[in-house]
Specification:
It is a single chain. Strand 1 and strand 2 (about 465-470) form a beta hairpin. By secondary structure, this protein is mostly helical. Helices cover about 70% and strands about 0% of the residues. The chain contains 35 helices and 4 strands.
Length: about 650
């Protein structure tokens, strides 16, 4: 239903505060005197939440919303006051004004008529008659232009308007109830059906929303509300191709009327079609409606698309334009605040808040799952996976939240993805969305789950630049595994270990050979023998032992790292990498094993002149054992190699 926007200035409620105010009310009053409207609103909302019938708090809250130019909440407060104090004329005055400013001409007419019939001699009667005249004119124009509403009374059409207001306030159930009543009273009108489809979509009943939208389109194939509801519902269901088909029909409609532009932008922004949003916005700017229509949401959604396309300057201009229209328009302010943060801490532009994507009913289910999962991480994971099975469309929405969600929405999506081990973690980690910390954590978990390769550089965006990073995605344990050798050989092995630590290579060799007589070809003993020979610079003998070790035990970790070191020394770099790569697929290492892997990789990457990668492996080793004596030697090797390469 097309609307003509009223230009009347919001009037402040005239009811004075009553005596004996509570401490909170007095505190709110002090903030109001200082024009600290946000602080006053926060306090008053707390009072009203605890005492919904607290008329003093509601009246003051109405004044606060008037000063904030928050027309949706102003209407809500004044409407409540008329029910609580129906004999207070100022409530009806303010409700008529708020209805007209909210583009609800039938409601404004109804409330103005009631006031003038009840208090015709009131001091505000002339002002209300002016409101009545404006509302009457707009209502008659609407009735004359829409055949489907012919014969309907102002009260009938008021139902449609008030269901819209309920949706705007987030009261979806109330909006659905009013829409159902409007359908019963206006069976030939499509507007109540569109509102019902919207209610179903916002409640997560997506199949019902699609069915009703299609019913409307059977009657009116070009109905913008229905096409928008259809595209958005299908997209939430994961049926992206069908959603895009409906959205394309929106883009080609000629002569879109006034406020209906908002539904077009809403659909295109939901689908994430930034190019289409920008194209339609530029067309909108050239239209006559752009000079008359004061809808901050239109400029905000265009700003998001410009920002996501890289034109931050243009985005900032449009967010400020939205704020000029409505100074307390939260989405614009929040996005502008996000731009002020360091690039690594930015969430990135978002079109809608969490409630646009996740219905309240789904949030309640997730909340119950979280409560059940407080016993343990395992229980939490189990509950989240159960929720995903029971709400299949939730998983379709998660990648949208990871890409375009507000901070709360993205954080919730990440929580679910981590708990359910979803592959979305990989795509998010490799994207430019969210903060650096969020992407790093997602990459770490994705690597642990096998969605990203272990031990290989991963292209992550860090501080706005793509950087190749190695991820520490291994479990490191310290408790030694019991050796499968006779006790006497084990005692000799321990003595050989002590001898190597003390630098007594000859004694370590003797002890290792003696132990090998008890446990021939044991890989651990062969490794100790090779190490003792290397320390004595008997490299050919050591190489022979290493080759025999890997021949007998091809999967033995220390044998493979020693073999890789031999290959690096002989400049057989590709062969060295072949010995090491299978080791990177292991999820866990003993600390000594991991240090051996780090050592070999640092040497390999220095040989390949991949100095950043070598530094990453060196940092991994330092995390595991910052006291390892090899660290200093490797740092010096790396510095020398870098210096030599620069001189070339």
């Amino acid at each position: 239903m097309a609307r003509k926007k009223s230009r009347r200035k919001i009037q402040h409620p005239q009811q004075p505060p009553r005596p004996r105010l509570s401490a909170q009310i007095m505190q709110a009053q002090q903030h109001m005197v200082r024009k600290q409207w946000d602080r006053a609103a926060d306090i008053l909302k707390q009072v009203v939440q605890r005492q919904p019938s607290h008329t003093e708090a509601l009246a003051m809250l109405g004044e606060v919303y008037a000063n904030m130019e928050d027309i949706n909440n102003l209407w809500d407060v004044t409407e409540k006051l008329t029910h609580l104090e129906p004999n207070e004329p100022t409530h009806w005055v303010n409700l008529a004004r708020a209805s007209l400013v909210n583009n609800l001409p039938f409601s404004a007419l109804h409330y103005a008529n009631h006031f003038l019939a009840t208090w015709p001699e009131h001091e505000y009667a002339d002002e209300v008659r002016e409101t009545q005249t404006i509302a009457q004119t707009i209502s008659e124009e609407i009735l004359a232009s829409e055949d489907t509403t012919q014969g309907a009374s102002a009260e009938d059409l008021m139902l449609f308007e008030q269901s819209q207001m309920a949706f705007n306030r987030g009261d979806i159930k109330r909006g659905e109830q009013i829409a159902q009543e409007a359908i019963r009273r206006l069976p030939n009108a499509v507007a109540p059906l569109n509102n019902l489809a919207l209610a179903y979509m916002l409640q997560g009943s997506l199949e019902e929303a699609v069915n009703i939208a299609r019913q409307v389109l059977e009657r009116e194939p070009d109905n913008i509300h229905a096409l928008s509801n259809l595209a958005q519902s299908l997209f939430r269901m994961g049926r992206k191709d069908e959603a895009q088909t409906a959205a394309r029909e929106l883009c080609v409609l000629p002569n879109i009327d006034g406020i209906l532009y908002a539904k077009v932008f809403e659909a295109l922004a939901t689908l994430g079609d930034d190019a289409a949003v920008i194209e339609v916005y530029e067309r909108f700017e050239q239209s006559a409606d752009a000079h008359e229509l004061r809808l901050p949401i239109v400029h905000h959604l265009a700003a998001v698309s410009y920002a996501r396309q890289g034109d931050v300057k243009r985005a900032r201009t449009l967010w400020k334009r939205a704020q000029k229209i409505e100074p307390h328009f939260a989405p614009a302010g929040a996005n502008l605040d996000d731009l002020k943060k360091p690039v690594e801490e930015r969430n990135g532009a978002w079109p809608f808040t969490l409630n646009h994507w996740i219905p309240q009913s789904w949030l309640e289910v997730l909340g119950r799952a979280a409560n059940k999962g407080t016993r343990s991480e395992t229980a939490f994971r189990r509950e989240i996976k159960r929720v995903l099975r029971n709400i299949p469309y939730l998983e379709s929405v998660l990648p949208i939240l990871l890409e375009r969600g507000d901070p709360a929405g993205r954080q919730m999506a990440l929580m679910i993805a981590h708990a359910a081990d979803l592959p979305n973690l990989r795509d998010f980690a490799l994207s430019q969305y969210g903060t650096d910390q969020q992407r790093m954590e997602a990459a770490q978990r994705a690597t642990e789950l096998g969605f990203l390769p272990r031990g290989k550089p991963v292209p992550l965006t860090i501080k706005g630049e793509q950087t190749e990073l190695l991820l520490f995605a291994y479990e490191i344990y310290e408790k030694p595994q019991p050796a499968d050798i006779p006790a006497k050989a084990q005692r000799l092995l321990e003595k050989a270990h002590d001898a190597l630590v003390e630098g007594n290579a000859e004694e370590a060799e003797i002890l290792s050979r003696e132990a090998l007589e008890i446990a021939p070809d044991n890989p651990t003993l062969l490794n100790f023998l090779a190490s003792s020979l290397t320390l004595q610079r008997r490299n050919e003998e050591a190489a022979a032992v290493v080759e025999r070790t890997v021949e007998l035990h091809p999967d033995y970790l220390f044998g493979r790292t020693a073999m890789a070191q031999l290959c690096i020394a002989d400049d057989r770099v590709q062969e060295a990498r072949a010995w090491l790569e299978p080791l990177l697929q292991r999820p866990r290492f003993h600390v000594s094993e991991f240090k051996a892997v780090c050592l070999a990789h640092v040497e390999l990457l220095i040989a390949e002149k991949q100095f950043d990668g070598a530094r990453s492996w060196l940092s991994f080793m330092e995390q595991v054992d910052p006291e390892d004596p090899n660290l200093l030697r490797l740092r010096l090797r790396l510095m020398g190699a870098r210096f030599t390469e620069k001189k070339k």
